[in-house]
């Protein structure tokens, strides 16, 4: 069985989302994937080809003004060249985001990623975790401390740098990387058996 290939296509305005991208990468590598980190605002033809050859693409962006960043939107629009040929059809997709507020309308960014994946005919991989930090015995150190289901969501204070990304949010992003890789491996087995 060949190694699943996971690409992480992300934009990071101030470095916080890059920390999460690295965490998704670490989780995917731990689970046995070959991983490509791709900054969408600097994407090359070779990186577009890497996306085309991937089993899964994980989208990442900060949430600005209730949606993904402008740089990520530009990448999404540029991906329409792949849409015409349905080049990404039946690949897996997932997503992660960060904002300064606990909610910050991050769900809308994750839903934007889901719609983008749907446009491409991709299969969405959710976070697969119960919410953390939602009872008197829970804590902010729980996985999925912000209680998102669609993808990995993080919160970092606006007056702090990338080093302040919450450890629980990093661990949640690592979980997403592992989950995407394990799902890609399952899909590969199914396709091989078909």
UniProtKB/TrEMBL annotation:
InterPro entries recorded: Flavodoxin/NO_synth, Flavoprotein-like_sf, FMN_Rdtase-like_dom
Pfam families: FMN_red
Gene3D superfamilies: 3.40.50.360
The Flavodoxin-like domain, residue ranges: 6-154
PANTHER family noted in UniProt: FLAVODOXIN-RELATED PROTEIN WRBA-RELATED (PTHR30546), FLAVOPROTEIN-LIKE PROTEIN YCP4-RELATED (PTHR30546:SF23)
The protein's name: Flavodoxin family protein
């Amino acid at each position: 069985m060949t190694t699943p290939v996971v690409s992480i296509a992300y934009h990071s305005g101030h470095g916080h989302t890059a920390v999460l991208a690295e965490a998704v990468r670490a989780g995917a590598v731990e689970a046995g994937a070959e991983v490509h980190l791709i900054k969408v605002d600097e994407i090359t033809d070779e990186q577009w080809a890497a996306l085309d050859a991937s089993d899964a693409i994980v989208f990442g962006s900060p949430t600005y003004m209730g949606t993904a960043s402008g740089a990520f939107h530009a990448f999404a629009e540029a991906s329409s060249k792949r849409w015409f040929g349905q080049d990404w059809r039946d690949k897996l997709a997932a997503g992660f985001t960060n904002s300064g507020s606990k909610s910050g309308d991050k769900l809308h960014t994750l839903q934007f990623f889901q719609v983008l994946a749907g446009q491409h005919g991709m299969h969405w991989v959710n976070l697969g975790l119960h919410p953390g930090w939602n009872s008197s015995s829970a804590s902010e150190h729980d996985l999925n401390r912000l209680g998102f289901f669609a993808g990995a969501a993080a919160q970092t204070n606006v007056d702090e740098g990338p080093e302040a990304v919450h450890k629980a949010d990093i661990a949640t992003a690592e979980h997403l990387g592992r989950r995407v890789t394990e799902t890609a491996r399952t899909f590969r087995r199914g396709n091989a058996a078909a």
